[in-house]
Amino acid sequence: MVLLAKEELNEAKEVKEKLQNDLNILLLPKDPNDDKNIIIEIRAGAGGDEAALFAAQLYRMYILYAENMKWKTELVSVNESGIGGFKEVVFMINGKGAYSKFKYESGVHRVQRVPETESGGRIHTSTVTVAVMPEAEELDVTIDLNDCKFDVFRASGNGGQCVNTTDSAVRLT
Fold first, then answer.
1. What whole-number distance in Å separates Cα of residue 29 and Cα of residue 165?
2. Spatial distance between the Cα atoms of 152 and 144, rounded to a whole number of angstroms
3. For residues 39 and 132, what is the distance between their CA atoms, to the nearest angstrom?
4. What is the C-alpha separation between 122 and 111, in angstroms, rounded?
5. pLDDT of 39-73, one tens digit each?
């Protein structure tokens, strides 16, 4: 009987610890951007064509995940490489909770593998950068031109017909 009580006590302590950890996570403040739509930018980094292929695979993986979650995707811009990869791809994912699922994907991703472009069987390292940004809210901005200062600069130097006659730089502050 005592052994049974000790066993139940140990199990109860484990359950209590797990519940305490879950409660601590639930008490953390929620990110205000978690429910927003997102814009993801993937750029090939070191590794040339292999990095572009890796970027294309990441893009396809993110698109399939978004479709699995029933979110809508929209391609914003793409810069393809010659062998089916992407040098750069920018796309939007529209869906509730998209930012909360993707916000930790930002950063540099690295792959080490024998690439499709390698004939000798050597392992290459390739990188891509991923930027995940919540969709910005529209703001109404009013600029009063009376508060603005315009500075105009002209070229200087020897000779030439346009010296001191052409405004070659304008600064607005």
1. 60
2. 19
3. 6
4. 13
5. 999 999 888 888 899 999 999 999 999 999 999 99
Q: Which of 131, 127, 124, 173 is nearest to 151 (CA)?
A: 173
The answer on pLDDT for 117 being more than 90 is no
Query: Distance between CA atoms of 61 and 44, rounded to whole angstroms?
Result: 15
83/4 Cα distance (integer angstroms): 66
Give the tokens for residue 139: 């703001």
Q: What is the pTM of this model?
A: 0.67
DSSP state string for 44-81: E-TTTHHHHHHHHHHHHHHHHHHHHTT-EEEEEEEEE-
List 61's β-bridge partners, or say none.
none
Is 132 within 8 Å of 106 (Cβ atoms)?
A: yes
